[in-house]
Amino acid sequence: MRLRYIFHGNDKEPHPFHVKSNWIPPVQPSIALERYFENIKLSLAEIEITKPKHNLSYNEHKAVKELQNNTAINLKRADKGTTTVILNKRDKIQEAQLIAQLHNGKHIDDMTKKWLSQTPNPPRIPIFYTFTKIHKPLPVGRPITSGCEGPTERISSFVDHLLQPIAQKQKSYLKDTTDFINFIEKTQVSNDTILVSMDVTSLYTNIPQEEGITIVCQAYEKYHNNSPPIPSHYL
Prior knowledge:
alpha+beta; two-stranded antiparallel ribbon; 4 strands; flat
């Protein structure tokens, strides 16, 4: 209330990332405000403290305690909604053991499993840096987060190994600038053709994730060369 008194009339919108302050406003010259605080303190001191009542019955409270102490199950919120999911702990662990599932399903061999299972100990913390875009009128940096030797490096390389051949079979695939130049040199362009260049702002972040994943999975199922193929839902 002292803060409201001090900043009364200041209609400035608060900063969305405001850093909280530990500053405690001092006593204010408003007699009414300070007297109100004193009256509140007196009223609070006169309140009889009683033992809070539980909003659960004895059996419900006992059941909650038993669930909390049960190490054989896992309680987590569902992906969507407010539902609570109770799973056997063994099944919950197996749910995240992707490498073991791929190996047990004969989708990867022993060597691939061993390679995927080897991660640096301790793993390297991802490093942030930028590449300067010198082709821009005012040079800016392209943000990069390097996950080399990080906990997800090998599984990311594995997915890249699966999808690279798929990407190369797409009609729109261009490997790099040299590939584009070679393509243009071989392309027959008539005299009345107008060449247009364009740039998409934030291309990857504007791709809807669900639709992007669906399209990638469909392309993998159509063009994969793995035997046996890795089920697309693992991607």
